[in-house]
């Protein structure tokens, strides 16, 4: 029989909920029913849907989407890819997800857009980095910016005043992001970006092992990470109001750098209470490393993810003659 969508056409946020609910149904379905359950998930996507899996090079289409759906549907019992949170976007939506098995898990962010019929015509997902480079990331960016010829703006050392300051707690999440990244980042405003954050903000930059807790920690974090010539450029913001997701890319000395997906959530007072920020890896792993990443994300709790990744890297280097002992 032909597969039908899991839900009637609607908002992007409902499409995201249907996507994860459908993936779960497909995974727990009896083996004989799994193909039809997976087909129902694929039916949530438009025929011309684009999938930006930021662990891969380039954009993917229907064949890749089908492969991912079938892979998740075939996960073993105990493994799960689950939706953690989703904004209230209508035409586009940001979301948080987690893949886990046993005591090991990996977090992620995502962004989806729907067409006029409510089908997903664009999906972007990004998992947290396995290796937490922390402060070394900022140090590297300072060196990289200098090596690429200096500031070339877009973020100047001396900033002009924001022409039309916004009031914290008075604008929806998508406008908060637009204001902070398109105005406050490039200019000066009383209170800066942290004026829009709740006193109990949890700011999760996933290149670090622990989140920043509270406005004081977040402000210190922002100040240490400020680099003239480096900026985050927003590519697309969901239209969520209580929360939103957005896609971005970095500009380093005027040149395009890594991309990322970030999620902002507002509290009852209209201030940002939670942020999850994930940048893509600048190195797209060859097959062995990609396999190691997937396996490490879903392996048992006794396995060190770093050890798995290092072992796979050593195997690749040995096989290609790129290790330290190679010719």
Automatic annotation (TrEMBL):
<dbReference type="InterPro" id="IPR032710">
    <property type="entry name" value="NTF2-like_dom_sf"/>
</dbReference>
<protein>
    <recommendedName>
        <fullName>SnoaL-like domain-containing protein</fullName>
    </recommendedName>
</protein>
């Amino acid at each position: 029989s032909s597969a039908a969508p899991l839900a009637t056409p609607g908002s992007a946020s409902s499409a995201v909920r249907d996507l994860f609910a459908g993936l779960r149904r497909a995974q727990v379905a009896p083996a004989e029913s799994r193909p039809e359950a997976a087909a129902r998930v694929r039916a949530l996507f438009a025929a011309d849907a684009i999938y930006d899996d930021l662990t891969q090079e380039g954009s993917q289409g229907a064949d890749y989407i089908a492969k991912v759906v079938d892979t998740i549907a075939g996960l073993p019992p105990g493994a799960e890819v689950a939706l953690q949170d989703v904004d209230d976007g209508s035409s586009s939506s940001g979301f948080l997800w987690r893949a886990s098995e046993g005591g090991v898990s990996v977090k992620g962010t995502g962004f989806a857009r729907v067409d006029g019929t409510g089908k997903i015509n664009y999906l972007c997902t990004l998992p947290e980095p396995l290796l937490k480079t922390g402060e070394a990331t900022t140090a590297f960016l300072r060196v990289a910016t200098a090596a690429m010829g200096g500031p070339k703006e877009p973020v100047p050392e001396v900033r002009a005043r924001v022409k039309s300051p916004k009031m914290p707690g008075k604008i929806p999440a998508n406008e908060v992001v637009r204001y902070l990244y398109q105005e406050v980042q490039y200019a000066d405003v009383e209170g800066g970006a942290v004026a829009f954050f709740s006193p109990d903000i949890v700011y999760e930059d996933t290149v670090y092992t622990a989140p920043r807790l509270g406005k004081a920690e977040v402000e210190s974090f922002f100040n240490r990470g400020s680099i003239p010539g480096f900026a985050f450029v927003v590519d697309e913001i969901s239209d969520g109001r209580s929360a939103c997701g957005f896609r971005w890319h970095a500009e380093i000395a005027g040149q395009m750098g890594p991309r990322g997906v970030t999620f902002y959530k507002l509290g009852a007072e209209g201030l940002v209470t939670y942020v999850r920020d994930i940048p893509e890896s600048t190195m797209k792993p060859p097959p062995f490393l990609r396999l190691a990443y997937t396996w490490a994300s879903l392996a048992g709790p006794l396995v060190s993810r770093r050890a798995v990744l290092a072992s796979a890297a050593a195997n690749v280097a040995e096989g290609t003659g790129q290790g330290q002992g190679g010719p």
